[in-house]
Design goal:
Elements lengths: L4 E6 L6 H6 L4 E4 L5 H9 L5 E6 L6 E14 L23 E16 H6 L7 H4 L5 E4 L1 H11 L1 E3 L2
Parallel strand pairs: 1-3
Antiparallel strand pairs: 1-6, 2-5, 3-4, 4-5, 5-7
Amino acid sequence: MSKNYWLVKSEPSAYSFDDLISEEDMSAEWDGVRNYAARNNMQKMKVGDQVLFYHSMIVPPKVVGISVVVKEAYPDNTAWDTESEHPDPKSSPDNPIWYMVDIKAQARMACSVSLNEIKAHPGLTEMVLVKLSRLSVQPVTETEWNYIVEMGHPEKIT
């Protein structure tokens, strides 16, 4: 089975790559996604798929780390938790609408890769991040992945 590649976006003030690293065993639920296209992408994620961690809503927005999917899509219980930051009254345990995956931190980019650098790279002009920059969970091709890894010089986290 082939490995797939993804990019997930988070505002570092809400949840940063450092927050992921500080979690017990450096893994966490990727919850709170409330966009159908992003949800559909998460439902396609498989254990072992590689994930670029992207900080949005900062200057400059940038890829800061690499994680891996460690648990495939399952119902996002924050949707029916009225105390959560992302409740959705239409979702319930019996009829879940939203899903989440678990990811685990693997490496920090020695050189974070900014959106401007990505846009300027001739091999990345068709990347979803360039075309649909607001999508919070998006596919990345293997070629795009390789370019970004080459640009970022990831350092394994121990």
